Amino acid sequence: MSLEYAVLGFLNYQPFTGYALKTMFDSSVRHFWYADQSQIYRTLARLTDEGLAVVEHVAQNDRPDRKPYHITPAGQAAFLEWLRGPFPHQQSKSGPLVHVFFSARLSDAELLAKFETAAEIFRTLLQHYEAVPVTAADSIQKVPSPREQYFWMQTLELGKLTMRAQLEWAEAILANIRDGCIPAQ
Q1: Residue 101 to residue 95: CA distance in whole angstroms
Q2: Residue whose C-alpha is closest to residue 7's, from 63, 46, 56
Q3: Angle between helices 18-26 and 37-49 (to 10 degrees)
Q4: SS (H, E, C) the chain
Q5: Residue 149 · residue 108 · CB < 8 Å
Q6: Residue 135 confidence (pLDDT)
Q7: How many CB atoms within 10 Å of residue 107?
Q8: How far apart are the first and last CA of the chain?
Q9: Do 3 and 43 contact (CB within 8 A), yes or no?
Q10: What stretches in the chain show pLDDT beneath 50?
Q11: Cβ(70)–Cβ(56) under 8 Å?
Q12: Given this model, what pLDDT does residue 110 score?
């Protein structure tokens, strides 16, 4: 998926300034699609250049002009065409799994430290994901329908399931190391 389609998806809900869009990203999809402020502004500029969005200049008295972006009919059509397309296959790259793959060269003490750290990371992320319905309540309320809210929450459910599985995996490796079930070097 490209950032363009995520931005178009949000613009389908309502117009957003770049700053408000970043806030929306951070409170909704950040657990599976991170975008920094500069990426969002570059994407908005590109969408505007391509006629998929337009920018409105709203004068303010004591501040710089607000620049909310609106999706165009062409942007809506492009977004729906992408959404109706095939389910994207994710080719994943994982630095942590490369670490694990070659971890046989580490001592048991080093492995314990590595996987205790990993388990703590997974535990912390799981706690964060479990708190999202409370911390993201304002963003969720901006979603126009219960049906859309349902699908937003399904991405969170997958995140929680993934973190639980990764935590269970790390804890199983830790138990195997502690129980001496890992073959010696």
Answers
A1: 10
A2: 46
A3: 130
A4: CCHHHHHHHHHHHCCECHHHHHHHHHCCCCCCCCCCHHHHHHHHHHHHHCCCEEECCECCCCCCCECCEEECHHHHHHHHHHHHCCCCCCCCCCHHHHHHHCHHHCCHHHHHHHHHHHHHHHHHHHHHHHHHHHHCHHHHHCCCCHHHHHHHHHHHHHHHHHHHHHHHHHHHHHHHHHCCCCCCC
A5: no
A6: 64
A7: 9
A8: 42
A9: yes
A10: none
A11: yes
A12: 94
Q: Give the pLDDT score at 129.
A: 87
158: Cα separation from own chain's centroid: 12
Question: What letters, b where the CB count within 10 A reaches 16 and e where it falls short, cover 28-38?
Answer: bbebeeebeee
Tokens of 73: 């009919």
pLDDT at 93: 76
**Position 154, amino acid:** Q
> In angstroms, rounded to a whole number, what is the distance separating the alpha carbons of residues 7 and 9?
5
Residue 171, token pair as written in the block? 């804890």
pLDDT in tens, 45-71: 999 999 999 999 887 888 888 899 999
Distances in Å between the alpha carbon of 19 and those of 15, 47, 67, 174?
Answer: 12, 16, 10, 43
